[in-house]
Structure formats: structure tokens, C-alpha cells
TrEMBL record:
<keyword id="KW-0378">Hydrolase</keyword>
<feature type="binding site">
    <location>
        <begin position="326"/>
        <end position="330"/>
    </location>
    <ligand>
        <name>GTP</name>
    </ligand>
</feature>
<dbReference type="InterPro" id="IPR003593">
    <property type="entry name" value="AAA+_ATPase"/>
</dbReference>
<dbReference type="Pfam" id="PF02881">
    <property type="entry name" value="SRP54_N"/>
</dbReference>
<dbReference type="GO" id="GO:0005737">
    <property type="term" value="C:cytoplasm"/>
</dbReference>
<dbReference type="InterPro" id="IPR027417">
    <property type="entry name" value="P-loop_NTPase"/>
</dbReference>
<protein>
    <recommendedName>
        <fullName>Signal recognition particle receptor FtsY</fullName>
        <ecNumber>3.6.5.4</ecNumber>
    </recommendedName>
</protein>
<comment type="similarity">
    <text>Belongs to the GTP-binding SRP family. FtsY subfamily.</text>
</comment>
<keyword id="KW-0472">Membrane</keyword>
<dbReference type="InterPro" id="IPR042101">
    <property type="entry name" value="SRP54_N_sf"/>
</dbReference>
<feature type="binding site">
    <location>
        <begin position="244"/>
        <end position="251"/>
    </location>
    <ligand>
        <name>GTP</name>
    </ligand>
</feature>
<dbReference type="InterPro" id="IPR036225">
    <property type="entry name" value="SRP/SRP_N"/>
</dbReference>
<comment type="subunit">
    <text>Part of the signal recognition particle protein translocation system, which is composed of SRP and FtsY.</text>
</comment>
<dbReference type="GO" id="GO:0005047">
    <property type="term" value="F:signal recognition particle binding"/>
</dbReference>
<keyword id="KW-0547">Nucleotide-binding</keyword>
<feature type="domain" description="SRP54-type proteins GTP-binding">
    <location>
        <begin position="411"/>
        <end position="424"/>
    </location>
</feature>
<dbReference type="Pfam" id="PF00448">
    <property type="entry name" value="SRP54"/>
</dbReference>
Length: 438
């Protein structure tokens, strides 16, 4: 159950947004908040106002009388019309002639949650929910768009190598190796894939049609080998730290993630802990307004651990589900900045056991293999649990996803697919390979 955003007290609670959405979809009505009317003093003169008819039959009988607006039968629900018919029979033949009709009871759908929505089925667990249309149509469309440039270059080259009906020989495999290298899969990963394909092709006497399916299976095995369950804490808030070098898009990704979690029913809080870069706090404030989430900040040059402390305290007090911490960009060889990051980790752990629960390394897909060495050393010292690959739509070398999984031994959990707030999706290996290879 999502955490209530209302404090307990004497004030009646309004139905939540999801409760009102469920009522609109299912036709049910939320229970109205209890109200306590004050007693009318004994000396007060009773009201002489005309009492409106209380039953559907009276509404129909008094149609056009002038005391009420005209009520058309179509304006009443089927239940009201049935009730009016029962009242008419009761007046003519007596109460015994009417058999009360019990109100229809809604049968709960076991495949949907209390909000009337189906649970997420992606590998990365939000702890929230999304509609089936969002998961299937929107997700796949965004993934196809994100790898379009890679598919155009990689797919054309792959098609020319794997001509229909050709027998797999050393020449085909050598050409395929060159194609994989141009997609930025990396030499180490490419050599491993080609070695496995050569063994399978000889053993199964494969053709080029078979080779394409074998390639897809090899790449899927690499991506799936690093998948791991998400470390959700038993009690909120869940703390996510965004780390990485300068210019990869940490601040933008923090704002996008806050909006994404919000659309899945989780209340997020942004922490502006990048106190080093000029205008970083202001930039995160803009994203907070766009995604309609709160932000905890301090002045530029302040202690980022102090900002984190304030954000964690506010998150616990306000009942938020997610605290997303935007940290300063740093290189792995900057001892002072890495020590500062370690201090932030200790501060988070003191306030919330197990925090930070997720440490996302933000990588720019356009840098390709050039950013792999920095990322490799960064993951060793920062306790990274997953990769957020930004600007995937801006490169023709989307094969870097395979290299990350093989060489960094970390899963890509999110992919940036554009500049808009909604242009971020959870990464899915099947959708990625289907979009890339067909």
C-alpha cells in the first residue's frame, strides 16, 4: 500500500488521487468523510424550505413540477430506475409484492492492484504500477527510437554479412567480428562472442540464418547474466545516489527519475547535493518544478553531507518513498571528492539502515569505449549497483550496452531516450535486442 500523504487527526481525509481514479474507472463511490453536525437548539424555528424528493420515483413523479429541474430517465442509473419501479409496484400491490434486489457487488480482479492497475513486469522493480498499454506500446516505441541510429548502421552491415542461405565459414565470422566492433561492443566482448559462435556453428553446421539467431542468444546471455533483484528496503524511504563524472547528465536524470517514479505511484524527494558545480542547484530546482516534486537544497559551496542529512530527515518526516540524491561530478582519481562521497554514504546509512539502497553510475552513451575505463575504476570505489545510460538515442554505437554488462559486470537499469522529462525508460534486454536485431 502506498504511504498516506495526509496526517492523522480530527480533519476528515479526502479520497486519494488513485482512489478517485479507481472510482471513475470502476463506477464505485468512495465513502464520504464523516461529518459531525451541531444540534439545532430547541428554540430554533424549523426550516420551511421545500424538501427535495429523496427517491428516484419521486424524482420522476415531480418532473416538470417547478420545484426541481426536469429529470430525464436517461439521467438516472439502471439501479435507480429499478428502485423506482419497485416503489411503484409497492404502492399498487403492497410491500409483500416486491422482492428486494440486492445491490450488485463488484468482483475484484486478482490481476490488478487496489488502484485498478496491473503490476509492472519489467526486470527493474519500481514498487509501483503501470498500465499494460504503457508497458507494451510506449515502452517498445521508445526503445526502438532510442536504438534507431545504431540499428540503421549495425543492421545494414549485419544484413550484408549474413546473406540468406550462406554457409557459415571463417570469412563470415571475420566480417561479423568487424561489424560488432563498429557497434562499440568492445574487443574483449566481441572476441568472446565470435569464439562461442564459431564453436556452435561448426557443431550444428549452421547457416547464416541460424547464425543471426545464435548471435541474439549470445548477446542476451551476456545481458541477463548481470541482472539482479532490486534492493528495496522494508521501510521507506529508499535512497538512490546518482554518481559519475561531469557532463554525463546526472542532474537531468535525477529529475526524470523523480517524475517517472511519481507516475508509478511513488512520492519522490530530490536532494541537491551537487554544491560544487555552478548553477547545479538551480538546474535541479527547474526539474523539481517540472516533475512536481519537492527539493531539499543548500547554498552553493555548502557541505553536501549536510544537504543529504536534511533531505533524509525531511523524507522520513514527510513520508516520501524515494530520496534521489544528485551528487557532484567527480573523477575516480580525485581522492578528496571520493572521500566526500564516502562520507555521504555513511551519513545516509546512519539515518536509514542499508542506505544508500541504490547507487546509479550515470554514463554518456556517446562516449562509448572512451568512458569505459573511468567507469570501471569508478565502480570499484563507489559501490555502484547499476548503470543509467544517457543519450542512447544520440549515438550509433549502442553496442556499448553489451560491453558494460560484460566488462563492468553491472546491469543497465535505465536508458535516456531524449531530452524531454518522460524520455527515460527502464532497460529491458529482450526489448533492446528485438529493437536492435529484429
Amino acid at each position: 500500500m502506498p504511504i498516506s500523504l495526509f496526517n492523522s487527526g480530527e480533519k476528515p481525509k479526502k479520497p486519494s488521487f488513485f482512489q478517485r481514479m479507481r472510482d471513475a474507472v470502476t463506477g464505485e463511490t468512495s465513502a464520504a468523510p464523516e461529518t459531525h453536525d451541531t444540534e439545532t437548539p430547541a428554540t430554533e424555528t424549523p426550516s420551511t424550505e421545500t424538501i427535495a424528493p429523496q427517491t428516484p420515483l419521486e424524482l420522476l413523479e415531480r418532473e416538470g413540477s417547478g420545484t426541481l429541474p426536469i429529470v430525464e430517465p436517461e439521467m438516472l442509473s439502471p439501479i435507480d430506475l429499478a428502485q423506482a419501479a419497485d416503489e411503484a409496484v409497492e404502492r399498487e400491490l403492497g410491500p409483500e409484492a416486491v422482492t428486494p434486489t440486492p445491490p450488485p457487488t463488484a468482483v475484484p480482479d486478482p490481476t490488478r492492484n487496489e488502484f485498478g492497475l496491473k503490476p509492472m513486469t519489467s526486470n527493474f522493480s519500481f514498487g509501483g504500477y503501470a498500465s499494460a498499454e504503457e508497458e507494451e506500446a510506449g515502452f517498445l516505441d521508445k526503445m526502438r527510437s532510442a536504438v534507431e541510429r545504431t540499428r540503421d548502421q549495425f543492421g545494414d552491415s549485419l544484413s550484408s554479412v549474413l546473406a540468406m542461405g550462406r554457409t557459415v565459414d571463417d570469412e563470415v565470422l571475420d566480417d561479423l567480428e568487424a561489424v560488432l566492433l563498429t557497434a562499440d561492443i568492445g574487443s574483449t566482448t566481441t572476441q568472446e562472442v565470435i569464439r562461442n559462435l564459431r564453436q556452435r556453428a561448426r557443431r550444428e553446421n549452421a547457416t547464416t540464418d541460424d547464425l543471426k539467431l545464435m548471435l541474439k542468444e549470445e548477446l542476451r546471455a551476456i545481458l541477463d547474466s548481470v541482472q539482479q533483484p532490486t534492493n528495496h528496503p522494508p521501510q521507506p524511504p529508499e535512497v538512490i545516489m546518482m554518481v559519475g563524472v561531469n557532463g554525463t547528465g546526472k542532474t537531468t536524470t535525477s529529475g526524470k527519475l523523480a517524475a517517472l517514479y511519481g507516475t508509478h505511484g511513488r512520492k519522490a524527494l530530490l536532494c541537491a547535493a551537487d554544491t560544487f558545480r555552478a548553477a547545479a542547484i538551480e538546474q535541479l530546482e527547474v526539474w523539481a518544478k517540472r516533475s512536481n516534486v519537492e527539493i531539499i537544497k543548500t547554498k552553493q559551496g555548502g557541505d553536501p553531507s549536510a544537504a543529504l542529512y536534511d533531505a533524509m530527515t525531511a523524507g522520513k518526516a514527510r513520508g516520501v518513498d524515494i530520496v534521489i540524491v544528485d551528487t557532484a561530478g567527480r573523477l575516480h582519481n580525485k581522492a578528496g571528492l571520493m572521500a566526500e562521497l564516502d562520507k555521504m554514504r555513511r551519513t545516509a546509512h546512519k539515518l536509514v539502515p542499508g542506505a544508500p539502497h541504490q547507487v546509479f553510475l550515470v554514463m554518456d552513451a556517446t562516449t562509448g569505449q572512451n568512458g569505459m575505463q573511468q567507469a570501471r575504476l569508478f565502480t570499484e570505489s563507489a559501490g555502484v549497483t547499476g548503470i543509467v545510460l544517457t543519450k542512447l538515442d544520440g549515438t550509433a554505437k549502442g553496442g556499448i550496452v553489451i560491453a558494460i554488462a560484460r566488462e563492468l559486470r553491472l546491469p543497465v537499469v535505465f536508458a535516456g531516450t531524449g531530452e524531454k522529462m518522460e524520455d527515460i525508460i527502464p532497460f529491458n534486454s529482450d526489448a533492446f535486442l528485438d529493437s536492435l536485431l529484429g
